[in-house]
Amino acid sequence: KQWYQRRVRVAIRKYVDEVVELAYPTDQDVAKDRELQNWTTEMVEVGFRGFEDGAGFPKQLSDRNSLSELVTVIIFNISVFHAGVNFQCLTILGYLPNCPGVLIKPPPSHGENITM
């Protein structure tokens, strides 16, 4: 599955690079975008307050490459990574005997007669 995730991440990055190049023709355009810079600062100072070094989130974005990488990581984590981590839960938790909503008595042990 690693190769698949890598291919998807590369495809996401390629798309993000193209969109960023359309929105920001130069690196200076990224650095001069006050709204973008304020957003990254707020994420570090408010959203990740208490985390050492802002949990790795950049406080400022100085070029298109750093913006593309940040957007790629966000998209990858909320799509591919989230699905890879959480979709297996349905297999286990979706089968009621694996996760009963109410367990009044201890579960039967091996060899015990089961009665309702």
Write the layout of secondary structure elements.
Blueprint: H1 2-23, H2 27-32, H3 34-47, H4 64-86, H5 88-93
Question: Can you give a write-up of this model?
Answer:
The protein is an all-alpha fold. Helices cover 61% and strands 0% of the residues. The protein is built from five helices and no strands. It has helices at 2-23, 27-32, 34-47, 64-86, 88-93. α1 packs antiparallel against α4 (64-86). The longest helix is centred in the middle third of the chain and has 23 residues, at 64-86. It is elongated and about 75 Å long. The relative contact order is 0.12. The model has no long low-confidence stretch (mean pLDDT 83).
Share in β-strands: under 5%
Principal-axis shape: elongated
What structural class is derived from the secondary structure elements? mainly alpha
Mean pLDDT: 83
Gyration radius, in Å: 23 Å
Note the run of SSEs as H and E. HHHHH
List the quaternary state of the chains. Answer: single chain
Tell me the number of helical segments per DSSP (H or I, 4 or more residues long): 5
Distance between the termini: 43 Å
Spans of at least 5 consecutive residues with low confidence = none
DSSP, total strands? 0
- In which range does the helix fraction lie? 55-70%
Biggest beta-sheet profile: none
